[in-house]
Each structure stands twice: as structure tokens, then as C-alpha cells.
Specification:
The protein is α+β, with helices and mostly antiparallel strands. Among the domains are: about 35-50 and about 65-120, no CATH class; about 145-315, 3-Layer(aba) Sandwich (Protein Transport Mog1p, Chain A). The chain has helices at about 1-30, 40-50, 65-85, 95-110, 135-145, 285-290, 300-305, 330-345, 350-360, 370-380, 395-400, 400-425, and strands at about 150-155, 160, 165-170, 175-180, 185-190, 200-210, 220-225, 240, 245-250, 260-265, 270-275, 280-285, 310. The strands form two sheets. It has a nine-stranded antiparallel sheet. Strands 4-5-6-7 form a four-stranded antiparallel sheet. A hairpin with a 2-residue loop joins strand 11 and strand 12 (about 280-285). It is globular, with a radius of gyration of 27 Å. It is a lipid-anchor; GPI-anchor.
Length: about 425
């Protein structure tokens, strides 16, 4: 009887262990699916705040009243951070563990659900010296190497190549943030174009360089359709002078149609250009700069892409495309578009697909220049030539890498159960 009871107990444990192992492996293997979940930022902010308390709140309520109040404030901030992450972190084990842990700690320390929240510690503001306003030189001195750079391109109808090398076509209209971090805010405004149900275009791009120490004061650049100035909105072409060098500068190889903005203090280059009847933006920025944002700044097309509800299939059906000529049949525009884009973009990558989309959606041959220009910018901004061209990945392909892992987890779970069951026979 004792042996039978132990076997029953082990059998129950085996199922629990199997489920835990399966869920853990599934979570690790499919982490890219929840790449936008930033629960680790919430965790690190909570740890940073509680370190300042000297552990007075973590001893089961034995600390001072001031310490416990501070700990409760930190917990409320932690809970608020997780609530902001609820949609992005749905299904993430670490997120749900954090939510449950916060709930337990609030009860353990008798913390009110409402009340003041802990303010995050400000970033250290050490006095700047030397080449502190030249990001690349400062990074090289600190790290002994050049920084890792990320690239984002927004062009055409609009299409977005994110910092994470994801490619999407968006149906967004109105003003949307492309970048929103501690140093930089970039907003694009899109509007419908004439002809085609899918056709939209970027008509305004606004770039705000935020005040940063003694390097720069806030500076704004804005481009509109048919007006891409080679100057900031105040008329200047440089800003942030220090030791004979400027942190910000604007120059143009094609005034009125293209402008390149260099922000030396953050090692970032932005190119704004007009292609056909649409504006486009290309960005090259160090990863540490591009990723310097808080959980509240969770709407950035260059980081997360466009919202799922605003995404389009890359290529519209031939029946919905506009004719390239009034005498063409429904099948001829598609063949002409393929031939035209193949001549400009031989590689069958995302830029070729974007060219097809824009050409079929608008019927305007000039719309293909947006993809060509975006590819040229990518070549100039991505150091590894093998990473310039991206192949379009369908929805089914995105989930496929997890399938072998799911099968492996299933086999592992079955073997664990068989192992424990065999001991009981």
C-alpha cells in the first residue's frame, strides 16, 4: 500500500514536472514571438528603486514605517508597469509570474492599492568633457570598439523595415511616431493618395532632437511633400557647437528633395527624401540609443512595427490593382509591374515586393523609386552586405521555427511520464 501510494504521488509529480519543463522550453524557444514584451524593464526598475530603500521593505513588514511606505510605492509602480505591458506580454510566463508576485507582496506588506508611486532614479548626469558630444569617439574610448548600429527604413505606401529587421506594410493614416526615445522623437503623417484602395503616402516627417546636457538644445526639423529643406525649422543648418564642432548638421545633395541630418552626440544619421509623391525616412542609430526608451513609449513603428490591426498583405490581388494604362486587361498590369520592378530591383527581396505593391496600388511608375531609394540607403547604413536584403516572411513561416521545439517538448513530456510510470510497475 505504501509503495502504491508513493507511485501515485510520483506519477502526479511527473505530470507537474513535465508541464513545467515543457512550458519553460516552449517559452525560451519561442521568445521571438513575444519580442515586444519588455517585462525585464519593469523588473529592473523595481530592483533599482528597492535597492535605494536598503532592504527595509523586504523583511516581511519588520522595517520602519517610512521604509514600508517606500516599498509599497515601489510595488505600486511595479504593478503599473506590468499593467502597461499587459497586451504585449500576454502569454509570457515571466510576465504572469511577476504579476502574481506583485499581488503576493502587496498582501504581505499590507500595501494600499492606491497611493503614491516611486519615481525612477534619474540617469547620472556627470560633467561632460573632451569628445563627450561625439558619441562614436566616446564609445570607442569606453568599449574599445565601434558601436553596434541598427537601421530603420520607412518608405512608399508606407512600408516599414524595423530596427529588428522585420518588414511590414501599414494602412496607418494620420500622425504616427516612428521613433520615441530619450534623445529623439520622429513622427510621420500619412494620407490617402488618389487611385487605389490601398494607396497612402507619407506627406510630413517631423524630427525633434531633445535637449541633451551641454551638447544641444532642442532642435526641430520638418519636411513636407514637395518641400524637403536643407535646414532646421529655425533656418539654421548646424546646432550645438562645442570646441569648434557641431552636434547637429544638415546638408543636401538634392535641395528640396533630399536632406541628411547628422546627430554626432547620439551617433545617428537620418535621411529624408521625396520619391514620387511620397516622403521616406532612413535611420542609422546605435542600438543603445535606439533602445533607450521607457515602457510608456511603446508605440514606435521603427521598433515594434505598425499595430496588427493596421497591417496589410504586402501584395494586393490583381483584381484590386490599378491599371498601368487605360487599355490594359486585368492581368497585364501585374505582368508589367513585375517586369518593371525586376529591372530596377533584381533581388526578389522586401524592396522588390514593396515596389510591386506600390506600383499595383497606385498605377504610377514613379512610385517604384521609393523602394529603390530605400535600398540605396540601406546599403549605405548597414555595414554587413549580407544583411541588406531581407526575404519576405509569411505569417506561417514566422511561427514555423517553434514547431520542432513543440514536437521535442511533447516527446520529452511523454518520456518523463513513461519513466515515472515504469518505476511504479
Amino acid at each position: 500500500m505504501v509503495t502504491l501510494a508513493l507511485c501515485s504521488h510520483y506519477s502526479q509529480l511527473s505530470w507537474k514536472h513535465s508541464v513545467i519543463v515543457a512550458l519553460l522550453l516552449f517559452h525560451l524557444g519561442c521568445l521571438q514571438v513575444w519580442a515586444s514584451c519588455r517585462i525585464l524593464r519593469c523588473n529592473s526598475d523595481f530592483v533599482a528603486v528597492t535597492l535605494d530603500l536598503g532592504g527595509s521593505g523586504g523583511g516581511g513588514g519588520g522595517g520602519s514605517r517610512e521604509g514600508n511606505a517606500g516599498y509599497c510605492s515601489a510595488l505600486r509602480s511595479y504593478a503599473m508597469c506590468t499593467r502597461r505591458m499587459a497586451r504585449a506580454c500576454r502569454g509570457d510566463l515571466a510576465y504572469h509570474s511577476a504579476v502574481q508576485g506583485i499581488e503576493d507582496l502587496l498582501i504581505q506588506h499590507s500595501c494600499p492599492r492606491t497611493g503614491p508611486t516611486a519615481q525612477p532614479r534619474p540617469l547620472p548626469q556627470a560633467p561632460i568633457s573632451g569628445d563627450a558630444c561625439i558619441y562614436e569617439k566616446g564609445y570607442l574610448q569606453r568599449e574599445g570598439r565601434t558601436p553596434d548600429y541598427l537601421h530603420c527604413g520607412v518608405f512608399g505606401d508606407p512600408h516599414v523595415r524595423t530596427f529588428r529587421d522585420e518588414f511590414q506594410t501599414c494602412a496607418v493614416q494620420g500622425a504616427w511616431p516612428l521613433i520615441d526615445n530619450e534623445y529623439l522623437y520622429v513622427q510621420a503623417t500619412s494620407a490617402p493618395m488618389r487611385g487605389g484602395a490601398y494607396a497612402t503616402a507619407l506627406i510630413t516627417i517631423t524630427i525633434i532632437f531633445k535637449n541633451w546636457r551641454q551638447c544641444i538644445e532642442q532642435q526641430i526639423y520638418q519636411a513636407e511633400l514637395d518641400s524637403v529643406p536643407a535646414a532646421f525649422v529655425d533656418g539654421s543648418v548646424t546646432s550645438g557647437e562645442r570646441q569648434g564642432q557641431h552636434s547637429l548638421s544638415v546638408h543636401s545633395d538634392l535641395p528640396g528633395r533630399q536632406a541628411e541630418i547628422r546627430a554626432a552626440h547620439i551617433g545617428t544619421t537620418l535621411v529624408v527624401r521625396q520619391s514620387g509623391r511620397s516622403l521616406g525616412l532612413s535611420v542609422r542609430s546605435p542600438s543603445a540609443i535606439a533602445e533607450a526608451f521607457t515602457p510608456e513609449q511603446d508605440l514606435q513603428l521603427c521598433v515594434y512595427g505598425c499595430p496588427p490591426s493596421q497591417r496589410l498583405e504586402t501584395l494586393p490581388s490583381p483584381s484590386s490593382s490599378s491599371s498601368l494604362s487605360s487599355s490594359s486587361s486585368s492581368s497585364q498590369p501585374s505582368a508589367a509591374a513585375h517586369a518593371h520592378c525586376a529591372a530596377l530591383l533584381p533581388a526578389r527581396d522586401i524592396y522588390y515586393q514593396a515596389c510591386l505593391f506600390d506600383l499595383l496600388a497606385t498605377g504610377d511608375l514613379n512610385s517604384s523609386t521609393a523602394a529603390v531609394a530605400a535600398l540605396e540607403d540601406a546599403r549605405g547604413m548597414i555595414s554587413d552586405p549580407n544583411k541588406v536584403h531581407l526575404l519576405l516572411v509569411g505569417k506561417a513561416d514566422r511561427s514555423r521555427p517553434c514547431l520542432p521545439l513543440i514536437l521535442a517538448v511533447a516527446v520529452l513530456s511523454e518520456r518523463l511520464v513513461a519513466l515515472w510510470t515504469g518505476r511504479c510497475l
